[in-house]
């Protein structure tokens, strides 16, 4: 038995179509079997509600009198891209405010507009014969614009890696705050309720397919940027009219240490045409896998800590290295259910008919890394290997003499096995001498034990960020065994800058 899209749309128009949420489909298949589920169910509705940074909107503001060709555009002091036409602009969700920084950004402007609030439009131009006006400053609402069309380059990942952190400090990322020493695991996605896991071969999901987007009827444009369906990481490029959207399904957020982002409610209705689609939509969280990546390694290809299912992630605990680690979701499963339920109501009330893709997406595609021909300098290229060190039980006076003799400001402290256990600076010794008249104390008493270090293979720009973030002027360089192999100082970086390296 097979159905046609025409048959399903006829049932939708007649009010006879049966739609079910994707999370309910496995139990229906268990009860009725594949053939029975095919007879019973016409549409499976999916949903997800999560941070989708690669989102934004095109605006047409209309022509002023006298007219202006907007070369620079700001909405509530968030700059939009104006290199399109005279009064068109694109505002990205992660663009930050020039006056409020990361606490307000493009996502907040989008939410303000959808909420019915007015925003300040400010524009500049050098002026031309056909567009003589040079400045413009007015307040606009969504209704004042000719078009406000959301166009999101990358939405609704098929799956996304979960994140943890093996370093000894908290990291603030687009995956939220990651606690030190794998203290937590952060993940995103609605699992079996998400759109693409219910159509992993992208038979039904493709260009021209109608969708639920932030409370409005939208459409899939095609594959999203950075799509990698060949690796199980397909994405979607989507669009919809902002005038029909709701703040129930569109919310701005700010991630500490990262930037603003937009929470997007997105759902795709899947027509149940044949038994293969029935089997695909009967997926459970136990069947869906992703990996936990170590965000403590600042490389493009982060190490995998372990493979995990969405059932494990949603349970609140996963096992790592023999210990239970708490998990938390950046996305809202509750809101994802609301998306799928709203979409179900649209289908059963006849509000939304379905369509098959006008163009299929390449299911084997994988993205390429940047073709960067210039090799990024590594710490090992510039670190100082002429080491002056000291033991933790030696006297402070001895440390002072070594600093003076070596004409250095940092002295790594090693234990009996020659592993790095601390660091002392000229400032540490000056304080100790002033406090105790230089008598009786050892290096152990004054050294800094929590040492910020680097590795020989770490990119120099990453090491530089460590120096800036921690307000220090040198980093001990340790290998994978914890052995000290060098030291990187601001002086070493200065020499690199002199040779023409640009960050």
Description:
- It is built from 12 helices and 31 strands.
- With 503 residues, it is an alpha+beta fold.
- The strands form 9 sheets. Strands 3, 4, 7, 12, 17, 18, 19, 20 and 21 form a 9-stranded antiparallel β-sheet that branches. Strands 6-5-10-11 form a 4-stranded antiparallel β-sheet.
- Helix 2 runs antiparallel to helix 4 and helix 8 packs antiparallel against helix 9.
Let me know the largest β-sheet. Answer: 9 strands, antiparallel
The level of helicity is: 10-25%
| Rg for CA atoms | 29 Å
Which percent range describes the beta-strand content? 25-35%
Overview in brief:
The protein is α+β, with helices and mostly antiparallel strands. Helices cover 23% and strands 29% of the residues.
Main traits of this protein?
globular, nine-stranded antiparallel β-sheet, alpha+beta, 31 strands, 503 residues, four-stranded antiparallel β-sheet, 12 helices
């Amino acid at each position: 038995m097979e159905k046609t899209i025409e048959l399903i749309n006829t049932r939708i128009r007649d009010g006879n179509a049966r739609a079910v949420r994707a999370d309910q489909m496995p139990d229906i298949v268990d009860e009725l079997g594949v053939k029975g589920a095919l007879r019973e169910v016409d549409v499976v509705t999916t949903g997800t509600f999560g941070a989708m940074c690669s989102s934004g909107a095109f605006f047409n503001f209309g022509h002023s009198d006298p007219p202006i060709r907007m070369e620079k555009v700001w909405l509530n002091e968030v700059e939009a891209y104006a290199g399109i036409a005279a009064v068109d602009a694109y505002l990205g969700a992660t663009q930050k405010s020039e006056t409020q920084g990361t606490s307000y950004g493009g996502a907040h402007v989008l939410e303000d507009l959808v909420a019915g609030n007015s925003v300040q439009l400010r524009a500049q131009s050098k002026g031309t014969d056909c567009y003589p006006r040079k400045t413009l400053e007015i307040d606009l609402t969504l209704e004042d614009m000719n078009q406000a069309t959301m166009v999101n380059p990358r939405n609704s990942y098929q799956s996304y890696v979960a994140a943890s952190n093996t370093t000894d400090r908290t990291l603030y990322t687009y995956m939220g705050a990651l606690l030190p020493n794998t203290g937590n695991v952060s993940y995103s996605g609605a699992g079996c309720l998400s759109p693409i896991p219910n159509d992993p071969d992208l038979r039904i999901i493709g260009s021209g397919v109608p969708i639920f987007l932030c409370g409005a009827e939208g459409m899939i444009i095609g594959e999203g940027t950075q799509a990698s369906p060949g690796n199980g990481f397909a994405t979607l490029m989507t669009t919809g009219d902002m005038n029909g959207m709701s703040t129930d399904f569109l919310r701005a957020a700010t991630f500490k240490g990262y930037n603003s982002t937009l929470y997007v409610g997105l759902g795709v209705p899947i027509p149940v045409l044949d038994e293969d689609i029935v089997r695909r939509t009967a997926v459970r969280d136990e069947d869906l896998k992703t990996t936990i990546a170590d965000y403590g390694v600042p490389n493009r290809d982060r190490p995998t800590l372990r493979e995990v299912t969405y059932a494990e992630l949603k349970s609140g605990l996963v096992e790592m290295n023999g210990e239970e680690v708490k998990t938390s979701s950046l996305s809202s499963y509750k809101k994802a259910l609301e998306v799928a339920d709203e979409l179900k109501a649209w289908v059963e009330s006849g509000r939304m008919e379905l369509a098959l893709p006008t163009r299929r997406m390449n299911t084997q595609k994988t993205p390429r890394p940047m073709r960067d021909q210039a090799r990024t300098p590594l710490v090992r290229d510039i670190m100082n290997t002429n080491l002056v060190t000291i033991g933790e039980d030696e006297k402070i006076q001895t440390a002072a003499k070594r600093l003076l003799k070596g004409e250095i400001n940092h002295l790594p402290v090693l234990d009996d096995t020659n592993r790095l256990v601390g660091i002392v600076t000229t400032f540490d010794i000056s304080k100790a001498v002033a406090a105790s008249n230089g008598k009786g104390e050892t290096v152990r008493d004054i050294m800094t034990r929590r040492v910020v270090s680097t590795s020989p293979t770490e990119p120099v720009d990453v090491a530089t960020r460590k120096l800036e973030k921690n307000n220090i002027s040198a980093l001990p360089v340790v290998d994978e065994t914890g052995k000290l192999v060098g030291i990187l100082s601001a002086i070493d970086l200065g020499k690199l800058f002199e040779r023409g390296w640009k960050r």
